[in-house]
Amino acid sequence: MSSLHEVSLQRDDASAARPRLTQLSPGGGCACKLPQAMLDDVLGMIGTTAGVQGSESANLLVGLQAPDDAAVYAIDDRRAWIVTADFGTPVVDDPYLWGRIAATNALSDVYAMGGRPLLALNLLAWPLDLDRTMLAEVLEGGRRAVVDAGALLVGGHSIDDPTPKFGLVGIGEVERDHLLTKGGACNGDLLILTKPLGVGIVSTAIKRGLAPAGLVEAAVESMIRLNANAADVARRATLRGGTDVTGYGLLGHLHEMTKAAGLVAHLHANSVPVLAAGADTVAQLIVEGCAPDGSRRTLAHALSTGWFEPGGLPDNTQLLLADAQTSGGLLLAVPPAIVDVVLTELHDGGDRAAAVIGQFTAPTPEHKPGTVTASATTI
């Protein structure tokens, strides 16, 4: 995997004795998100609805009233700022790659709203007694992602903490006509996912020492890829509905889209792209118990509350659909008339795993808004 970065090539033999970052945290990356149900309960206690002082403004286009991937604030009749923050714990052991992945993940929310990153601030928690050269590599990896995004790294904040954590505050800009929101999907729109699933499972396998090298490399390549091309394609196609797939997995984030749009979604599970490297597959790692706890919580909540109907899918396939992604792809709602053009542009721009995986439909008496159904089919 040395081709993925420069810093590790310059290490001496003593680097082998450095601690493994994934062993310094009970979880990894976006799999550490608080459960959706818990957040809903807590936010309901503190007042985030219309009329609450401090949560309203004529310029606030997206805020707490309809929570999305980022806040959006109008700066004139044509443009708006996008403001977001994201940080997490290590998903790989290499400090440089973790920094790059964490920063790429944080900037994804800007792309998920249809925007372009402008500025970034580091968010860092680090143990005082942990190797400073490792910290420098984390920050260098983060800087690389920000530079690749065409943004400026302008500062940050750090604290002493026994568990390493890293991420960014991201500020971007979007033309208001190109804004993507979770509620922007329309009845009949097809669903495109731009990156393969499985990085949460691979990250857990890394932590347990079970991950094949080929799958690790495939996961890292996916996680360090910015969602810039996908956002560019969405803007050119004037799409309106989208989100990124992160800690709540494809299932959880698709549920958010269907609920916000007042629609139902059907997934064709056999069309969903999944990480693979030769004979090594994510399915093998699920069998070995490498699904993150956060993924299991998401699936359990989806089944217990009834908004997910798995249609006879095997348990392991259901877990894959709920796999907690760090720096996952965009999930886009695309009108059928332009889906071939959008898919071609995604592939030509480097998002080679992008695939049509399902469709939005109108609610019925049997399926209320927010329902996600699935079948072992292709589309």
Count of DSSP-assigned helices: 11
The geometry reads as: globular
Approximately how much beta-strand content do the residues carry? 15-25%
Please identify the top-level CATH class of the largest domain. Answer: Alpha Beta
**Any idea what the CATH architecture of the largest domain is?**
Alpha-Beta Complex
Overall residue-averaged pLDDT value: 92
- Quote the distance from N terminus to C terminus: 34 Å
Structural class: alpha+beta
Low-confidence stretches: 1-14
Count of DSSP E strands?
Answer: 15
Q: What's the number of domains? A: 2
Mind summarizing the main beta sheet? 7 strands, mixed
Task: Return the CATH topology of the largest domain.
Answer: Phosphoribosyl-aminoimidazole Synthetase, Chain A, domain 2
Relative helix content: 25-40%
**Could you give the order of strands across the largest sheet?**
8-13-7-14-9-15-12
**CATH-defined superfamily of the largest domain:** PurM-like C-terminal domain
GO molecular function, one term: selenide, water dikinase activity
Domain PurM-like N-terminal: 68-174
Domain PurM-like C-terminal: 188-362
Region (Disordered): 1-20
Explain this structure to me?
This protein is of the alpha+beta class. Helix content is 33%, strand content 22%. The chain has 2 domains: 176 residues, 60s Ribosomal Protein L30, Chain: A (2-Layer Sandwich); 196 residues, Phosphoribosyl-aminoimidazole Synthetase, Chain A, domain 2 (Alpha-Beta Complex). A 7-stranded mixed β-sheet has the order 8-13-7-14-9-15-12, sandwiched between helices. It has a 6-stranded mixed β-sheet with strand order 1-2-3-6-4-5, covered by helices on one side. Strands 10-11 form a two-stranded antiparallel sheet. Strand 1 and strand 2 form a beta hairpin. Helix 2 packs parallel to helix 3. The chain is globular and about 60 Å long. The protein starts with 35 loop residues before the first helix and ends with a strand. One of its GO terms (molecular function) is ATP binding. It holds the Pfam family AIRS. InterPro entries: PurM-like_C_dom, PurM-like_C_sf, PurM-like_N, PurM-like_N_sf, SelD_I, SPS/SelD. Belongs to the selenophosphate synthase 1 family. Class I subfamily.
